[in-house]
Specification:
19 helices; globular
Length: 420
């Protein structure tokens, strides 16, 4: 059994913010930016094709977001068990972090913009007619089941926010009602169930499809693995005990993903093999990478890699960047009448780089303004709804292991809940 001294030697400090988590979140949003901007690159030579295939892998950045979210939120919930106002405080705190920006974005999209541009007919009309799916966090159902053509003007990316909110409607109750041992088993079975759901959807559709990619039951394995990591790290040995398994898991899952990339000349998100074992492999890899980053000591290569200031800045504002970047991409394409990025000296790479950089910088500027002028003022209300430390928490609690449970690097409440 690992001693309390060994746990104390880990890089985590109670209540402290760990910068590398923002760096990992920055990597996730960077991958998403690559994936969405490269959609308009038409590679005509081997180098362009290689760059396009590499950037297209970025759709897996959403899986990394899911793992981070499952890890952070489950840690908060587990440590709050037995505390006062468990449900009230969790849901209000999450609403203060998520709702102001999300519903502000929707208000701009559905209430403000129509005052300057008539939403009649075509894509605008379709968007307005289906707005109830957006207000109720059901874009994933709209995009994958109701109609695959009813999320126009680059708003389909809201599907991932819907997945998380649907998951967290029920997850707090599951965490509260289950013992740690049962909760670990629930997380493991959720991974298996998620794979089974995807296989059933693929069988029913005759191939890879949007439902297997976007529906919450089909994607809950990433959230569950993040939750599982949070729970296992609260065992007697804490995170250090998991490192050997995390390294081997990263190697094995990375090998599976490498084989998929080699077989398909890229990581194609709607390929049947990718949507089954591939999604599971990505979820495992993301979880192992998170564990390795959390265990990294200041000064180590891993720590330095994710402690870059620019990467942490991207992570800090990643939620707003995620919301804004896709509509901005649509705007730039509309202004420059761009169906594909143009070639320069026989290559589309320079123009692709310019497009990605432009969208990224514009999204970051809007996200920075949104945070300082709008979002952070709602977060001041969180002081009225503190995260209680309950019987499973860190205030001298053993968490049922006989060893004080390690305090997680959720950081300040607003950063802990910044899962986008």
């Amino acid at each position: 059994m690992t001693s309390t001294t060994a746990i104390a030697d880990t890089p985590y400090k109670p209540g402290a913010h760990v910068p590398v988590l923002d760096g990992l979140r920055g990597l996730a949003i960077l991958l998403v930016l690559f994936r969405h901007t490269v959609r308009y690159m038409g590679p005509d030579n081997l180098v362009d094709q290689a760059v396009s295939s590499l950037m297209n892998i970025g759709w897996a950045g959403v899986d990394l977001f899911f793992v981070l979210s499952g890890f952070l939120i489950t840690g908060i919930l587990y440590d709050s068990k037995g505390g006062q106002h468990y449900f009230r405080n969790f849901y209000i705190r999450r609403a203060l972090r998520i709702f102001p920006l999300y519903y502000g974005f929707l208000a701009l999209l559905f209430l403000v913009l129509p005052q300057f541009y008539e939403y009649h007919g075509g894509r605008f009309g379709t968007l307005l007619e289906n707005q109830h799916w957006y207000w109720t966090y059901m874009v994933n159902v709209l995009a994958s089941v109701a109609s695959t053509s009813s999320t126009p003007l680059n708003t389909t990316h809201l599907w991932s926010l819907a997945v998380e909110e649907q998951f967290y409607i029920v997850w707090p109750a599951v965490v509260l009602l289950c013992t740690r041992r049962v909760l670990v088993a629930v997380c493991a079975w959720m991974v298996v169930a998620s794979l089974a759901v995807r296989m059933a959807l693929i069988y029913a559709d005759g191939g890879g499809n949007d439902a297997a990619y976007m529906l919450m039951p089909a994607r809950m394995d990433t959230l569950a693995l993040g939750a599982l990591l949070a729970l296992l790290a609260r065992d007697s040995g804490g995170l250090p005990r998991l490192m050997r398994w995390a390294r081997w898991g990263a190697v094995l899952s990375g090998g599976i993903i490498a084989l998929l990339i080699g077989a398909n000349l890229g990581l194609k998100q709607y390929d049947v093999t990718t949507q089954t074992v591939g999604y599971t492999g990505i979820a495992v890899l993301a979880t192992c990478v998170l564990a390795l980053v959390l265990d990294a000591r200041p000064g180590s290569r891993t720590y330095r890699a994710f402690d870059q200031g620019w990467l942490r800045a991207l992570g800090k504002y990643s939620y707003a960047i995620y919301l804004f970047h896709y509509p901005l991409l649509n705007y730039f394409r509309y202004v420059y009448r761009m169906r594909e990025v143009p070639e320069l000296l026989g290559s589309a790479i320079p123009a692709q780089f310019a497009l990605t950089l432009t969208v990224s910088v514009a999204s970051f500027v809007l996200a920075w303004l949104s945070w300082h002028l709008y979002e952070k003022h709602f977060l001041k209300l969180k002081r009225f709804f503190p995260n209680a430390t309950g019987s499973a928490g860190n205030s001298g609690s053993t968490g049922g292991t006989g060893v004080p449970a390690p305090s997680w690097p959720a950081g300040s409440p607003e950063r802990a809940l910044r899962v986008r």
